[in-house]
Amino acid sequence: MTGTDPDTPDNAPPGRQGLARSLFRGSLPRWRGGRYSLSKLFLNFYLLAMGSFVAIAFTADFIISTAQQGITDDYARRFMRGTITLIEDELFRHPRRQWEQKIQDIDGKFSYKLGIVERRTLDTRLTSAQVAKLDAGDIAIAHDHDVMYHRLGNTSKVLVVGPLSASRNPEEHAGLPLDLRLRLLTWSLIGVIFAVALWFWVRPVWRDLETLRQSARDFGDGNFDTGSTVVQTQLFSPLADTLNSMAERVRQLLATHRELSCGISHELRTPIARMRFALEMLSETDDIDERRRLWAMMEADLDELDQLIDTSLTYARYEREIPEAHFSSVRFADWLADEVDSVRLLGRQLQVTVDTESLPENLHIDLDRKAMPYALRNLLRNAFKYAAREIQVSAEILGERIAIHVDDDGIGIPEEDREHIFSAFTRLDRSRDRSTGGYGLGLAIARRVLELHGGTAFASSSPLGGARFTLTWQAHQ
């Protein structure tokens, strides 16, 4: 934690420390100066895809050839049986001692080789199944050499025909065999066509990768105002959307952080200044009553600081991430009356009434019993600051939603400011007085709580002549 490399002793020689530092740095990804190489990306995709395609093609060809081997052998036997029979009849017209010479004469008339071998020499060259066919007078085919064998009558001589393939008779076909040339041409055309198609696919992918890399680099450098990341292909569209959402969320968190930092630093100045003034006055007076008054002022300032910190932390928690709601069903009229009674003492001499007459009897509503009271109490504290004589809390059912109204007979809120007051650290000009101004966080927290419930909080004019604040959300979650 002091800047030295991990796992490197402090007393290690300079050479070892330099080596350890180099290895440690070399293991880290170097993305800052790097770029995605289009040619390298294309080559990797091409080799992988083309290699896989060739392997699949050869495997499929081998399987098909093996499956069709019996059909091919039967066709070759029927195709060559007449030729082999004619050669056999021609040989039997001559004495056996002339067969070698005669087969050489006949061989010159065919494009494949003819020969005669002894039967005993084939035991190691043919399989047992092929030997059985040969001894039965049938034609045996050796696939490894593309050669046919046929026993000449009951003699020990065997007629050898082949190799039949042109590729095994190079003297008849100069240069590359035709089938090999066709294969090379076919695979060359496939490779070129595939390369062109892959290029047109890889290029947009590479361009999107570069866009995402640049966006990630900007975010890593703390630049979140570069605009949305736009990609051209559907492949990276979900990733780009996620990246844009992340950037927007980070921007909101940074804005909240700046807002809280500036707001709290501003709000802290007044109680701290009053406490400093009270301390100076306390050191200069010996009057007991004055000292008690100054102590009371400092205790009030400490309470104000504690409330500011608690409120700011609550707002930051709701702004950082919306917590998971834990809904439970409550008997709504009783719950509302209990919550109002819990803060009624803060209303001093104000008349606070609760009206639930319009609600059905034994109405049960789903809400978060930990979060919703915080929203309602913030509205009541706000009403306590501005009401002149009376505050009225009422509730009503609006379709499938429940609404709570908090009305006061205070100075009201201009229509153009009714949405703005739900922003953090916002106080209207007429409420700058510390006795009523607050911190501008209570209404912001109330709206966050209602968003947790899938509802909202808003302000309007009150029938009492002041302001009305309304909380509304789905009655049954």
UniProtKB/TrEMBL annotation:
Residues 263-477 form the Histidine kinase domain. It is an enzyme of class 2 (transferase). SUPFAM superfamilies: ATPase domain of HSP90 chaperone/DNA topoisomerase II/histidine kinase, Homodimeric domain of signal transducing histidine kinase. PROSITE patterns: HAMP, HIS_KIN. It is a multi-pass membrane protein. It comes from Azonexus hydrophilus. Its main location: membrane. It catalyses: ATP + protein L-histidine = ADP + protein N-phospho-L-histidine. Residues 203-255 form the HAMP domain. GO terms for molecular function: ATP binding. Its EC number is 2.7.13.3. This is histidine kinase. Keywords: ATP-binding, Cell membrane, Kinase, Membrane, Nucleotide-binding, Phosphoprotein, Transferase, Transmembrane, Transmembrane helix. InterPro entries: 2C_sensor_his_kinase, HAMP_dom, HATPase_C_sf, HATPase_dom, His_kinase_dom, HisK_dim/P_dom, HisK_dim/P_sf, Sig_transdc_His_kin-like_C. It comes from the Bacteria. The chain crosses the membrane at residues 41-64, 184-202. It is found in: Cell membrane. It holds the Pfam family HisKA.
